[in-house]
Amino acid sequence: MVTLRRTASVALPAPREVSSAGPLERRDRKIFLAFLAPGMLLGIGALFIPVIYAIQLSFFHAESFIDEPTFVGLGNYIRVFSEPRYWQAFWHGLFYAVATVALQVVIGIAIALLLHQEFRGRNWLRSAALAPYILPTVVVVYIWKWLLNINYGIFNVFLENVGVGPIAWFSSPVAAWFSIIFVSVWYWTPFVTITFLAALQTISDDLYDAAAVDGANAWKRLIHITLPVLKPVLIVIVMLRTIFMFNKFDIVWLMTNGGPLTTTEHLPILAYVKTFDMFDIGGGTAIATSIFVFLALLIWIYFRMFPLEEH
Amino acid sequence: MRKKNWVLIRRVFLLLLFIAVTLYSLFPMYWMVVSGLRAGRSLFEPLLLPGPYSWQGYKTILSLTDFPTYYVNSILIAVGTTVLTVAVVTPMAYALVRSRLPGMMLMVRAMLFAYMFPALLLAIPIYIFLVKIGLDDTRLSLILTHSTFTLPLGVWLMWGFFKNFPFEVEESAFIDGCSRLQAIYRIIMPLTLPGVLTVVLFAFVLSWSDFVFSLILITSDELKTLPYGLASIDDAYDANWGELMAGSTMICLPLLALFAFLSRYFIRGLSMGSVKG
After folding, report:
1. How much is the pLDDT for A306?
2. The pLDDT value given to residue A311
3. Residues in chain A within 8 Å Cβ distance of B275
4. Quick one: fold of A71-305?
5. Which of A36, A188, A255, A274 should one mutate to test binding to chain B, selecting the residue with the greatest count of B CBs within 10 A?
6. What are the residue boundaries of the structural domains of chain A, listed by start?
7. In whole numbers, what is the pLDDT of chain B averaged over residues?
8. B199 domain-assigned
9. What is the mean pLDDT of residues B134-154?
């Protein structure tokens, strides 16, 4: 009974969206417009106009924030794209995004499946597993910088005792990448866990009970019920994580500043360095716009593959 | 007999996983708290259990730096952002789902689109804008810019929430003679609480944790928020790890309190509670 009702309430909005507004909606049109207005105003003022302005700035040359910029057409783009440093940063970002998303999704789903089991202390463990996600990036970075500190960090003390270390976690490119990826995965895995766990809980127990009665074992229930139901959620998770990980500026900036040299520099850091350290505002906004175009392409592909309205 | 063994193996296995996940998630935070309460030589000794205790780190960071000022700023800005977000997002998401006005799906897409924008790309033009109108380096500028990421996220969350919200609940209120606003006030708002609390949690945490906008928009020391403030304490003073961990712990306190109180709603809010009845 519960299952039937739930399916109905999810499935019903589809035909409604296609049909035109009914009498109730027409009567309340003014209320709806009043509801929409503040959000649209804020969205246009704080998001839309600055974005357009940034894209516009990428076609100008400016060396300070106050001067009148001069129009250079595609000059900034041609200059930026011909720098090897740009492409190095691009591949760094892609590597970082793919590595961290893959690890987050695998570990996150494993923890979510564990937290979905029935056992004593489950609620406590649930909160514990989600906790890292609510820490500010700065705090996460300082904790791990302290844990991984070359001289006194507890990790290196341990490694020294077992005869492996100490390892300079931030001095060589490989070690720096390892540290950044490890800390990023530690920090953002709970996002996957939370989302996946919430989705797991929307699956009615009746469904599993019925399958169990029909003789399906735990593995079959996972393959034939859990994963198909959660496929859309998984897609959304991968999509959102990829987009966010490709954009992460603060964690990499605070951990390594893009160093040693530029070996952990990715596009967001390059955009920041160009704009605020080199005062190449046109170049910085051109890089930022290129990040956006790349991400827009990604999200467009996702929408084409898996439309929002799909049932 | 075989069944009994299997149950035992499962229990041991679960217990081991339980310990592993707990250590993995909580040890770094535990280490932060423990290190913050140490001073001097004991900071550099690998003592896994807490102690010897010392408030030196807290005393130093609270009296010799602007940490208390950063704290007040962070509270004002995070509360401001949260209130603004909830007030704007809840009615908007409701209208997006129920109004059947043209272009609603387009607006939801535009929100998702806006949400994927790198904060950095927004911060640069917003900064130039605010310099021009003389609003840069203010608390208000941070509240408005923080809503550039809390607004799309909030709309996205509440849109999903209302979309799975059974229309029959309102319909029965209309049949009983309620107007739209009465139905919203009496029936929908109480049932929306889990969704709203989810938005509150996200908006507060994101605003409180923001580093990028504070780094770019704020130049005066007395207007910095905690994350940027802690990083500049690390740069400007010769702060030791005990002081930095003490500061980190104090930054985390409201978040942990909020989380302890709201995590229940948080998880429940995401699974659609009201349908089950």
Report:
1. 63
2. 32
3. 5-6, 9
4. MetI-like fold (1.10.3720)
5. A36
6. 71-305
7. 84
8. yes
9. 88
Region B256-260: mean pLDDT is: 83
* Chain A from 124 to 153: CB within 8 A of any B CB: 125-132, 134-140, 142-144, 146-147, 149, 151-152
In whole angstroms, give the CA distance from residue B266 to residue B244. Answer: 30
Q: How many domains does chain B have?
A: 1
Chain CA centroid to CA A67, Å: 36
Residue B275 reports pLDDT greater than 80: no
Residue B120 belongs to domain spanning:
77-224+253-271
- In Å, how far from its chain's centre is CA B196? 13
Condensed to tens digits (0 to 9), the pLDDT of residues B51-64 reads: 788 898 899 899 98
Reading phi first (left if > 0) and then psi (alpha if -120 to 50, else beta), residue A73 is in: left
Residue B209 located in a structural domain: yes
For A294, residues 6+ apart whose C-beta sits below 8 A from its C-beta are A246
Q: Is the pLDDT of residue B272 over 60?
A: no
What token pair was written down for A278?
């080199």
Positions of chain A with pLDDT lower than 50, given as ranges:
1-19, 310-311
Q: Is residue B22 part of a domain?
A: no
CA distance B1 to B85: 58
CA A285 to chain centre: 22
Question: Is residue B15 in some structural domain?
Answer: no
Please report the ipTM that was assigned to this predicted complex: 0.84
